Amino acid sequence: MKRILVILLAVLLIAAPAFAAEKGTAKEAQAMVKKAIAFWKANGQDKAWAEFNNPKGQFIDKDLYIYVTDINKNAKIMAHGANKALIGKELVALKDKNGKQFMKELIDAARVKGSGWEEYFWTNPVSKKVEHKSLYYERYDHYAVCCGIYK
To answer: In terms of CB atoms within 10 Å, which end of the chain has fewer, N or C?
Structure first.
């Protein structure tokens, strides 16, 4: 029994870095937002949003994905790489598990600051669990282009 526990512990220690590598980093989230905006500028809105929504596209990596929200229309989701069912929904009143109206805070901050980080709790599309999320956003026209990391 003791030997089995030692083997199990060794396997977990070896596998832990692989599991950790499946989570995106803050630097990767920022880079993805910048890449998404550059793609949008180069290819136009329709092509960009189609690519952001593509589950096998270049804007999905590990647990990272792009979403776009209109900052003038009640946080209407225009594109979403992890959940197409949210596209077209107005989420300004959406609250996380702690009651924080994070979408309202996001669009307000995007209007004023243009870029930054927003903290809230959201369902991780990989783990399917509600987790602490740090979202990086940049304003482009009257939209916020967003990508977050799960902590």
So the answer is: N
